[in-house]
Model the fold of this input.
Amino acid sequence: MFKKKGIRYVLELNPSEVRLMTTALMNFRNKCLRDGKPTEDINALLLMVMKK
Done:
């Protein structure tokens, strides 16, 4: 898979949006785990969202 580098987006989220995004990413991660798909990218996104 090819990834474009150089384009970066920044989102500013309020606490309720962070909670919603974290829940959605966790649900998607669990679904991928059940299906045996890789979760490295989702894990990286989760860390970015939960970092602040």
User: Anything to note?
Assistant: Residues 21 and 49 are 8 Å apart (CA to CA). The chain has a mean pLDDT of 89.
